[in-house]
Amino acid sequence: MAPGAPFCRPPRLCRDHKLVTHRASQFMRAVIQRVKQASVVINDGERREIGPGLVVLLAVEEADTPEDIVWLSGKISRLRIFNDEQGLMNRSVQEVAGEILLISQFTLFASTKKGNRPSFTRSAKPELAIPIYEKFTAQLLLDSGRSVRTGEFGADMLVTLANDGPVTIVIDSKQPE
């Protein structure tokens, strides 16, 4: 590999059995928290809140695709992290009739490699990120069939939540584990 060349993962087959390649660092990232309740206050004004369900913090990169949106939304909608009658995490937000609070959070791509001030250069610029965030919101509503409340992209937000468990899951669209 030439000096300065980006590190690439080997090609892989995507869900449609087509060969895909991409830089290792390009993916949509979500932090999912199971909550008893949560709220967001936007610019010290409007308050949006949910009862039991999920808080999803979402970071977008410029290379995110419609396939990433569909895959990640479906994964979150079907993620079995709610307890069943035996106390096992065996139910999805759909099955427990939970609500979803979706918050854009570019800081999930913070790089602290150099110095002590984080860099956010991996996060998509607003002109690219806002349409992706809006498409993700619509897809999550469609996939989950549940109420999806949102923060406001680029606003100053105060998020408050009661993490249930605690249960916190991190998912990267191109690095599924």
CATH homologous superfamily descriptor: D-tyrosyl-tRNA(Tyr) deacylase
How large a portion of the residues is in β-strands, by DSSP E?
25-35%
Number of structural units classed as domains: 1
Silhouette: globular
Alpha plus pi helix count: 2
CATH architecture, by name, is 3-Layer(bba) Sandwich
- The Cα radius of gyration reads 17 Å
Secondary structure category: alpha+beta
Q: In which range does the helix fraction lie?
A: 10-25%
* Major sheet size, sense and barrel closure: 6 strands, mixed
CATH class: Alpha Beta
The number of E-state strands comes to: 10
CATH fold-level assignment: D-tyrosyl-trna(Tyr) Deacylase, Chain: A
Give the mean pLDDT. 85
H-E string: EEEEEHEEEHEE
Question: What can you tell me about this protein's structure?
Answer:
Helices cover 18% and strands 33% of the residues. The protein has helices at residues 66-78, 126-144, and strands at residues 12-13, 19-20, 29-42, 47-50, 53-59, 82-83, 89-91, 99-104, 148-150, 157-172. The strands form three sheets. Strands 3, 4, 5, 8, 9 and 10 form a six-stranded mixed sheet that branches. Helix 1 (66-78) crosses helix 2. The longest helix is centred in the C-terminal third of the chain and has 19 residues, at 126-144.
